[in-house]
Write a structure and sequence with these properties.
The protein is built from 3 helices and 7 strands. Strands 3-2-1-4-5-7-6 form a 7-stranded mixed sheet. Strand 4, helix 1 and strand 5 form a beta-alpha-beta unit.
């Protein structure tokens, strides 16, 4: 099984292809994940992991990031993404961009290219006691009821078309 750990930072994983933009982490490959044409082979990986990476990708570059993830995954592979919330600019971390975590799987740009297998939320203390719909609405108003999101998606057989 071939696996790639995108934006690995200090989380170097044995048996994985570890990728980061910062050469000081000694990744297997130094790649800027906001660029297209990553130096990784197409249709090769069974698992693409982006753990606490997506919130660092400029929203204008996210389509390119997702297109490249799609390109390097095998048809039956899995993209596993985890990101923290709130996604309101990441006030506690200036390197974070907003992620509307409750909308990603249903975004029209993703429908033809990704099949969402699973989406799960790590709720805050207050969020655990609320129905998901209310917790999500409170997040929209800046009340942190969800701490983190994990998404598992598989690529469809469709090739990306440049629609954005």
């Amino acid at each position: 099984m071939k696996k790639v750990n995108l934006g690995c930072g200090p989380d170097y994983r044995d048996g994985w292809t570890n990728v980061d933009i910062n050469p000081e982490f000694n990744p297997d490959q130094v790649i800027d994940l906001e660029d297209n044409n990553w130096d990784l082979p197409s249709s090769t990986f069974d698992v693409v992991l982006a753990d606490n990476v997506f919130e660092h990708i400029d929203p204008r570059k996210r389509p390119t990031f997702l297109e490249e993830c799609h390109r390097i995954l095998k048809e039956d592979g899995e993209l596993v993404m985890r990101w923290p919330t709130p996604g309101f600019g990441g006030g506690w971390d200036v390197t974070h961009y907003s992620i509307p975590s409750w909308e990603w799987p249903n975004h029209p740009n993703n429908d033809d290219y990704w099949e969402t297998e699973e989406i799960s939320f790590d709720y805050s203390a207050i969020g655990r006691y609320l129905p998901q719909s209310i917790a999500t609405q409170l997040m929209c108003h800046g009340i942190r009821t969800i701490i983190a999101v994990e998404l598992v998606a598989s690529p469809t057989g469709d090739e990306y078309e440049k629609t954005w």
